[in-house]
# Entry
Amino acid sequence: MPKSAAIPDKSLFKVRVPIQVRFRDTDAMGHINNAVYLSYLELARVRYFAAVADFKDHRDISFILARVEIDYRSPALLTDDLAVYIRTQSLGGAKFISEYLVLEEKTQRVVVTAETVQVCYDYERSAVTRLSPDLRAKIEALEGRKF
# Structure
């Protein structure tokens, strides 16, 4: 989502993940370090797929992260009350795109918008694979729409 794009309505997002900001997340300027947001997005992805599918551990996740795009819209501090909102933006044959909105909850200030591309992957064969009909159906059920 380019920085010039409109901010999506948070009501479109089906999963909200509160973030406990830690002192170690901050940089010398007292802001949350840019690289830390990757971990926040990862946490949201894990929670999202826990809501979608009943996976027990990391071996049940059959996709890899192929691309990340982050737009830093405003700085966040240690004392900010953050949450990451995540939804599936699109589903393809072998890939799907997730969209994120990181808000400072008290003020609803947008801190970050982001997008990730995940590719379905068979770890045993070391090969890209198609999105299973079962996973597609579960994502569509959570999102309340067909892709």
In short: The beta strands are 15-19, 63-72, 82-91, 95-104, 109-122, 127-128. The domain at 10-142 is CATH 3.10.129.10 (Thiol Ester Dehydrase; Chain A). The chain has a mean pLDDT of 92.
